[in-house]
Specification:
Keywords: Membrane, Transmembrane, Transmembrane helix. The strands form 4 sheets. Strands 3-4-5-10-8 form a 5-stranded antiparallel β-sheet. It has a 3-stranded antiparallel β-sheet with strand order 9-6-12, with no helix packed on it. The radius of gyration is 22 Å and the shape is globular. It has a single domain, classed as Immunoglobulin-like (Sandwich), CATH 2.60.40. The chain is mainly beta and 179 residues long. β3 and β4 form a beta hairpin. The chain contains 2 helices and 12 strands; from the N terminus they run ββαβββββαβββββ.
């Protein structure tokens, strides 16, 4: 038996059994890999209401994958004819820091939270207060950061009362550079 140290205590560990010999699996083709990546990304978007976004690194012109989630604030609830804060959470899984410089509405639909959807709220009349917003947000490598755009979300006066105090998930796109 081999011994492994776990929290400074010794635990007996059985030796690993050899893997059975069998036919070698081929690595997936580029097309299969692309389909699997696309399916994985779609699953994340649907299940987590997260928006996968690509942003352009201005120095190299390369695109980098990261996770963005933007929603209206719980602390400043939206009401018809008012604005509220936009909370943007950025996950940087890259091995380098990034600096985001602008934010705008992304592709996709603005979606109310499930409870509000069940009561008949739609996202009609909800949007960003500006077409593009300049920001100066830094996110360290392999890190998650949350930022607030004050009065970044608006609800038109004609929006229904069923949407009062609703949290909306909002697709956004960002531009930036290596930090």
């Amino acid at each position: 038996m081999q011994r492994a140290v776990i929290s400074e205590k010794f635990v007996d560990v059985a030796p690993a059994e050899p893997e059975p010999a069998g036919p070698r699996r081929r690595s997936p083709s580029g097309r299969t890999r692309t389909i699997l990546i696309a399916a994985s990304a779609a699953t994340v978007i649907v299940n987590a209401c997260a928006v996968w976004a690509y942003w352009k690194i201005t120095d190299t012109g390369a695109f980098v994958q990261m996770t963005l989630r933007a929603q209206s604030s719980l602390n400043v609830p939206l009401r018809p004819g008012t604005t509220g804060d936009l909370i943007v959470t950025v996950t940087n899984e890259n091995n380098f820091p990034i600096r985001l410089t602008s934010l705008r509405l992304g592709n996709g639909s603005i979606v109310p939270d499930e409870e509000s959807q069940d009561s008949g709220c739609s996202a009609a009349g909800v949007g960003l207060t500006s077409r593009s917003t300049s920001v100066n947000w830094e996110v360290d490598h392999n890190n998650v950061a949350a930022f607030t755009v004050q009065d970044g979300v608006r609800m038109t006066p004609g929006a229904g009362q069923k949407c009062v105090n609703t949290v909306f998930i909002i697709p956004v796109q960002v531009s930036g550079e290596i930090g």
